[in-house]
Automatic annotation (TrEMBL):
It comes from Streptomyces xiangluensis. Keywords: Membrane, Transmembrane, Transmembrane helix. It comes from the Bacteria. This is Membrane protein YesL. The lineage of its organism: Bacteria, Bacillati, Actinomycetota, Actinomycetes, Kitasatosporales. The chain crosses the membrane at residues 23-54, 75-93, 105-127, 155-176.
Length: 203
């Protein structure tokens, strides 16, 4: 947000409150677009792209979200969603087998949970990458690197997911708002890393 957007005297809601409201509206759009499941990566990636545009004073509105989304939902986006859904089902099946009492079940469950956690972090960080708008392979590749070189950011991703899940668990209607703050957190984590890398290279 530019300095010229500071709240004027007598104005009740400043630009930060307006942005918060816009984040919630983007969250509702993301939740609705994600309902078919296979559209979830594209929906979350679009939300991150729209929120990233706030740094350049671009509007963060449901209208802009839908405009960006219309340029997407290509075969690659749907394939990314199908792959994500298949990975989740595979993880759930592995955990169910572990609970069935197979030999070495505790170790198997721990390894499966660890792999699932890492895949979740990489997938979410990929959604926040600018490359995800047109090249999911590049986005996943860069996200995998980010998850290793920025362990703190990966921890923040897990905290953001936990906060969103907790809100949805406490009050079900919040599940339709949670994707907005989640996308904002993912975007902030990616911008934080990018800014840190830029300062390191310029030093």
């Amino acid at each position: 947000m530019s300095a010229g957007q500071a709240r004027e005297t007598g104005e009740i809601f400043g630009p930060r409150m307006t942005l918060f409201a816009d984040v919630l509206s983007v969250g509702v759009c993301t939740a609705l677009v994600s309902l078919p499941v296979v559209t979830l990566p594209a929906a979350l990636s679009t939300a991150c792209a729209v929120l990233r545009g706030a740094r350049e004073d671009q509007p963060v509105t449901a209208g802009r979200y839908l405009a960006v989304l219309r340029q997407r939902l290509r075969a690659g986006d749907l394939a990314a969603g199908a792959l994500s859904a298949a990975g989740l089902l595979l993880l759930l099946a592995d955990l169910a087998l572990a609970r069935a009492g197979l030999p070495g079940a505790p170790l198997f469950a721990a390894v499966a949970a660890l792999i699932g956690t890492y895949a979740t972090v990489v997938g979410l960080r990929a959604c926040a990458r600018p490359e995800s708008l047109n090249d999911w392979r590049a986005a996943v590749r860069e996200a995998a690197r980010d998850s290793v070189r920025d362990v703190g950011g990966s921890g923040l991703v897990l905290l953001a997911v936990a906060a969103a899940a907790l809100c949805a668990w406490m009050l079900l209607p919040l599940a339709f708002l949670a994707p907005g703050p989640l996308a904002l957190a993912l975007t902030a984590i990616d911008v934080r890393l990018s800014s840190g890398v830029s300062r390191t290279e310029s030093a």
